[in-house]
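Quick question: what would this complex look like in 3D?
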Amino acid sequence: MLTDLSEASDTVLVLAIGRWNQDALAEAFRRHAGSVYAVAQQVLHDEGAAREVAHDAFVWLWHEPDRFDPARGSLRAFLLNFAHSRAIDRLRSDRRRSRREEAEARSSPPMTYDLEREVWDLTLVTKVRDAVGELPEEERKAIECAYFGGYTYRETATLLGEPEGTVKSRIRSGLHRLQVRLREAGLQGVEL
Amino acid sequence: MTISHDELRSLLGAYALHAVEPDEVSAVEDHVAECPRCNAELSEYLMAAPLLGDAGGEAPEGLWDQVLATIDQPSTPAMQRSVLKAARRSSRRRQSFIFGTAGVAAAAAILALALVVAGLEGRVHHLQGEPASEALQRAASAASDAPGHSDVYLRSSSGRASAHVVVTAGGSAYLESSTLPELSAGRTYQLWTLSSGRAVSLGLLGRAPGLVAFRVEPGMSMLMITAEPSGGVPQPDSPVVASGSLFET
């Protein structure tokens, strides 16, 4: 029996969640909920909707812990992937995009997402930011447009005025570069 | 439409960013399931891509209380706490049991089921109480969209579908809709599962079943609904009004 969940690995937490251990879910929430919410908020720009996505992520973890495979990445990456996917679905389905595009058009160009304005207060966050910042600009733009803007690669190609194949290739090469740098920084394959 | 290996491989980065076109998602997923090379490549992307939006920070105030309220809903965890606590001590909670189970999983399933049966002996649970919360509705919707879910249709003796249940690969189940006629006062529908020829109560559905959540555990083979006196009965005392197999969807 676990006596101190705060020292348990994420994998142990998920196993405990699989046995309906609410304290384990609480510890996973304490570790990752802020990041899960942040991902949804950065995509949706809507606090209420981001809150719902974060809520759903942990309810989903409670009901479907078997979907987490530690061999395929950290629990944080697993939860963030869910949050991003759900946020993108919402963005595409509830017409928030049109309102958001109008707001962006009034305030700033769509491709000038300012990473520096975020609160990068964690080592992980700083290293990810550094790794993204080191990407060739064309790769970073393609990735940020798709990830933060919620655009498909075809839409991204249109927005950037590039061929679809070029955008697909830049996303792939950018992600490859990113994962290599994160691995070199010791941030992959470890629990975050 | 057939997509070549190279074309599918070129989509892996976009897929990791949830940026492939909707009609390409299943093609990528099917391909990755069969191509170790692309699977490995996608795994690497999926270790990095989700971190792009990780800005850290604190969770919004009160969010945990909302999560807790959802997972503590009487309609779902009541059974979890009262019945499955015993089962989870001795066996892994989740197995891929719905579409075939063998070996260790089967042994665990038998143990889990035995405990479930013991826990439910002589008891009934109210699956349906207040109108379904938004959270429950979202959970049911997510279950319908989840890969690997199964649709179970409970049919009357005439063969007409009377209720639709969505079961996730993890065993979460949602009775999403039914055409069962509303019962008179003093009556309730009761949900049962069949195991080894024995009916085990899963809970009460009320006079007019709406959205309810419950668990499908290893060893359960069939779902059935009967109409019983309000308060339910430990063993079915009325003809089955609808039934469906968990193995034939």
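Answer marked as accepted. Chain A touches chain B through 80 residues (CB under 8 Å).
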